[in-house]
Specification:
The chain is 40% helix and 13% strand. Helix 2 (39-59) runs parallel beside helix 8 (241-255) and helix 10 (306-315) packs across helix 13. It has helices at 17-23, 39-59, 72-86, 101-112, 130-136, 159-169, 230-233, 241-255, 262-280, 306-315, 335-339, 344-348, 361-384; strands at residues 5-6, 66-69, 92-96, 116-120, 141-145, 172-176, 196-200, 211-215, 285-286, 296-300, 318-319, 350-354. Bound molecules: pyridoxal-5'-phosphate.
């Protein structure tokens, strides 16, 4: 078996050794409940508050504006519900057609509940026009929600412009920043128009099942869970202390990544993979040519069935993705590429490769051997009959 070549970091990332080390004591000796009045509990409580500070610092927020969640999905869902409950007579929301399913599926549910949903497309570069957001806002718009960095293409949305439009029009704005956190500079103290922001630990080397929702001090909030008064009465249930501590450590490490040159190193690897493939694979095209996060490469292999290519890559222990992990195994072509105006063939023939600070040069070298060989096999098979995957 070949060593693992892991190029699917937008699906999930590996926990960093430092992060694991930070969380382990809270699964062993320091197992206290943060709500308990004795010292064991107080230590857990203090660890929780330190983590809150690290997460707040990473995104330029105040610690009081951070609510710990079970991840990106809960943050997205809670933000949207909070905004809608605050303005029960407003029955319209604006979002993009490129959202992660955490927002997409929720918007579908809202449409069934009688809400009107405007879904803005992108241009062929993957970019959402802020002017289209401005044009879509109405007097009865309760919320605008737009993804910060797209999980499939990596394209960065003009969040500052959109947030400013929403602020001027008096409309709440939420952003799914799960793929942006740790990859782009985020300073919410400079973005007063952002009312809510969701992030998730496992997309930046924290554990799965933990995340945070930023709720600006003046933004309405409604509990999703009801019970104990944890999280300043905003999220009931005993806190996932070990994972929250890990999230805090991951946030600390992400905050220094840029000036340590880590993001540049990730980009160098992404660019080497992409440029070399562009040189050696005829007709190869990049999906998402607007400004992107440093780690993502979404590529169209003309005439190739992406699902078949993924299987061949997996045989060589190379992990990549045909769009979003949440729909792996489904033959549904990417809704993101469709929203960029691409047809079914382009969507079917496209794969996403996503790197992280743990991606090695050896992995890129292996990918550059494995991918062209798999393509050759597929092309030969298309010429000579169906490909046999063994
Ligand atoms: C992964 C992801 C989510 C969901 O986060 P979970 O923590 O897995 O619930 C939401 N939005 C985007 C853009 C993502 O990449």
């Amino acid at each position: 078996m070949q060593p693992l070549t892991y190029l699917d970091n937008n699906a999930t990332t590996r926990v960093l050794p430092d992060v694991l080390e930070a969380m382990l004591p809270f699964l062993t000796e320091e197992f206290g409940n943060p709500s308990s009045a004795y010292r064991l509990g107080s230590r857990a409580e203090r660890a929780l508050e330190r983590a809150r500070g690290h997460v707040a610092t990473l995104i330029g927020a105040d610690p009081e504006e951070i609510v710990f969640t079970s991840g990106g999905t809960e943050g997205d869902n809670t933000a949207v519900e909070s905004a809608l409950k605050a303005f029960p007579t407003r029955r319209h929301i604006v979002t993009s057609a490129l959202e992660h399913s955490a927002i997409l599926k929720q918007a579908e549910g809202l449409a069934r509940r009688g809400y009107e949903v405007t879904r803005l497309p992108a241009d062929q570069t993957g970019w959402i026009d802020p002017a289209a957001v401005a044009a879509a806002i109405r007097d009865d718009t309760a919320l605008v929600t737009v993804i910060w960095a797209n999980n499939e293409t990596g394209v960065i949305s003009p969040i500052a412009e959109i947030a400013e439009i929403c602020r001027r029009r008096g409309v709440l704005f939420h952003t799914d920043a799960v793929q942006a956190v740790g990859k782009v500079e985020i300073d919410l103290s400079e973005l007063p128009g952002v009312s809510y922001l969701a992030l998730s630990g496992h997309k930046f080397h924290g554990p799965k099942g933990v995340g945070a929702l930023f709720v600006r001090r003046d933004a309405p909030f409604t509990n999703y869970f009801h019970g104990g008064s944890q999280e300043n009465d905003q999220r009931s249930g005993t806190e996932n202390v070990a994972s929250i501590v890990a999230l805090g450590r991951a946030a600390e490490l992400a905050a220094t990544a840029r000036h340590e040159g880590i993001l540049d190193a990730v980009q160098a690897k992404r660019d080497r993979l992409e440029r070399t493939l562009l040189e050696c694979v005829p007709g190869l095209e990049v999906n998402g040519t607007a400004a992107r996060i440093a780690n993502t490469s979404n590529l169209h292999f003309p005439g190739i069935e992406g699902g078949a290519l993924l299987l061949l890559l997996d045989q060589q222990n190379l992990a990549a993705s045909a769009g979003s992990a949440c729909r792996a195994g489904s033959v549904q072509p990417s809704h993101v590429l469709a929203a960029m105006g691409f047809g079914v063939d382009r969507a079917r023939g496209s794969l996403r490769f996503s790197m992280s600070r743990l991606t090695t040069d050896e992995e890129i070298d292996r990918a550059l051997e494995i991918i062209p060989r798999a393509l050759e096999r597929l092309r030969a098979a298309t010429a000579n009959g169906p490909v046999v995957v063994r």
